[in-house]
Write a structure and sequence with these properties.
By secondary structure, this protein is an alpha/beta fold. Helix content is 33%, strand content 22%. The chain is built from 4 helices and 6 strands. The longest helix is centred in the last third of the chain and has 18 residues, at 91-108. The radius of gyration is 14 Å and the shape is globular.
């Protein structure tokens, strides 16, 4: 499951939002309900906070195909300069994030920053 920040959804034309300064970085979150238990994080195992939140920002679910298509259009229109993806730590998100990153590289082509817990050098490769 991929979620977008409200500002990103707005830039991609997937949500109406009033803003004076739309982001030039697309902020995405892969997954929900992390297996880690960081005390500051809404996605933590023991957090009772709404799982649609991360860092006080509300994230909305969209279809991956729609996200990729709209990211591609926004990149071509020079509305975005890069993407930044926060990946929660669950077994299913590893495959999802790798597949999604592959699509981003092939169809969008923007520089991408990934924030994820890394368990080994092999996982990085």
């Amino acid at each position: 499951m991929i979620k977008l920040s409200a500002g990103t959804a707005h830039v991609l034309g997937m949500k109406r939002l009033k803003t004076d300064a739309p982001p030039t970085t697309a902020y995405l979150m892969a997954g929900e309900g992390c297996s880690n238990d960081c005390s500051f994080c809404a996605q933590a195992t023991n957090s009772d906070t709404d799982k649609d939140n991360l860092s006080r920002i509300r994230w909305q679910k969209f279809k991956q195909e729609d996200i990729i298509d709209n990211l591609s259009l926004a990149a071509k229109d020079n509305k975005l300069k890069r993407t930044c993806i926060q990946v929660v730590d669950t077994p299913s998100e590893k495959k999802l994030s790798v597949d999604f990153l592959r699509q981003l590289k092939e169809k969008v082509g923007l520089p991408t920053c990934v924030s994820k817990k890394v368990n080994s050098l092999a996982e990085v490769k």
